[in-house]
Amino acid sequence: MRIGEIAALAGVTTRAVRHYHQQGLLPEPERRANGYREYGLRHAVELARIRRLTELGLGLAEVKDVLADDAGRELVEVLEELDGDLARQEAAVRERRERLAALLEQARAGELPPEGPVSPDLARLFAALGPTDSAIAAKDREHLALFDSLGGPEGSGELVAALRPLADDPEFAGRVEELYGRLDELAEAAADDPRIAPLGDELVAAMPEAVLRLIAQEDAGQSLGGGFGEAFLADFPAAQAEVVRRMLAGLAERARRAGGGGRP
Amino acid sequence: MRIGEIAALAGVTTRAVRHYHQQGLLPEPERRANGYREYGLRHAVELARIRRLTELGLGLAEVKDVLADDAGRELVEVLEELDGDLARQEAAVRERRERLAALLEQARAGELPPEGPVSPDLARLFAALGPTDSAIAAKDREHLALFDSLGGPEGSGELVAALRPLADDPEFAGRVEELYGRLDELAEAAADDPRIAPLGDELVAAMPEAVLRLIAQEDAGQSLGGGFGEAFLADFPAAQAEVVRRMLAGLAERARRAGGGGRP
DNA sequence: TAGAAACGTTGACGCTGCGACAAGGTCAAG
DNA sequence: CTTGACCTTGTCGCAGCGTCAACGTTTCTA
């Protein structure tokens, strides 16, 4: 047989056969006078065996090991390890598909936020807020999306979870819109604008209980991730940054009075 | 933020961040005087978005596309395609695991043949045959293993299926052992040895009905895969090859008489 | 009998998503 | 001053082949 025949016989490509030669999986056969490889049945047998093993998902190196020691002992080990591997893969794929399904459902409901795929909780919050043309609202949504996925897929979804009760509040959208509007007006205001203090205080008051617990846990919001806090404030113009600063301070204060604070 | 901070924040490595820069997924930020990259919150937002997308299983190129057109339309398309992809992957992995489970069961029952993983049917046949020290029996097993997996995982398991009834025959092992023994004796005999004809005929008689149907289907065994028939015979010493040839001819004859043959 | 189509040969690059070096420069702390 | 922990660019490596390229051989066909 020539290489094309044996390849077709085993159901692989000629390239694969040559690759197996290069990797030392399959011995090189004799050559004809013209340089063509001449395969016999033994090669077909070995090639078929290689294919059965690779089909199971073994890597070529593992196949080589298995072929090397003629006892079946090694094979069993490899197969068991492989099964564990595949089990993990299957779980991973399934989890991805579940998240995908949730996303596609959101998308078909027209609730897919422009920030890309976010957690279901956050998606509900965004949906409750509805579309907006406020610049700062868009920015805030981005911040929330960021927070939503800090440090890994399970990391720090707590804040969003804490905010979720808001999504069920019928007055929510209206109140938020008003607050965003007032924040927008401060876009180019000075850092000592008199509207800063009251707005900050109202934001503090608007936060649900659950958020306070988080703030208290995190040592008064000090540890918002290395350098993250500064970057957060730096992302706002002066007056708005002041509002945020006052809001954070107010939350910390409120948390201290309510829960008894982190470390004395 | 420096690169290490933003990377930790988003839960990726610095290498990944730089890679995203190179691939144009994430814009390069400003540099400090010393050449360090200086990241702001916007970058963190974008990086987190990239990570959410890659986590779903999107390739970097797809992520780039999704980020490029700011409408969510493309995202939905990509997600749907991805879901199909993952569905196929999941099915493939599950099928492999099922076969693996069957193999491991065989292995634990001590029935794992040295020819490597074969179909359950063939494994039963081998188990029924039991261990043997006959040289030709080992060769035959290899041939069967090869046949078992011709041209793909579902291809041509028919022959083995046709032989399966033998595995349930209580006399099977003994009869086969005797026939193998007589074949072994012909290892170095001449091509005109008088023992050839009767042995060939007995082999024909020993084949189950189902095999005949296969032979008839395949145009009297002529099309045993390009060049395969020759290689098959070439794998035996002269006298044994004669036996096989006579057996094949006898089977074709028997098939013609029984079923009315392929093409007139 | 010539030419095209279908084989074969070796060699080298491409793909994915980074990890892991190398060979440095920078910066804060002890 | 020296560590040690950062940062910089650049390069190779990985799995399992697919896919040219550039060329020789065989075989079918007109």
Automatic annotation (TrEMBL), chains A, B:
<feature type="domain" description="HTH merR-type">
    <location>
        <begin position="1"/>
        <end position="69"/>
    </location>
</feature>
<protein>
    <submittedName>
        <fullName>MerR family transcriptional regulator</fullName>
    </submittedName>
</protein>
<dbReference type="Pfam" id="PF13411">
    <property type="entry name" value="MerR_1"/>
</dbReference>
<feature type="coiled-coil region">
    <location>
        <begin position="79"/>
        <end position="106"/>
    </location>
</feature>
<dbReference type="InterPro" id="IPR000551">
    <property type="entry name" value="MerR-type_HTH_dom"/>
</dbReference>
<keyword id="KW-0238">DNA-binding</keyword>
<dbReference type="InterPro" id="IPR009061">
    <property type="entry name" value="DNA-bd_dom_put_sf"/>
</dbReference>
<dbReference type="InterPro" id="IPR047057">
    <property type="entry name" value="MerR_fam"/>
</dbReference>
<keyword id="KW-0175">Coiled coil</keyword>
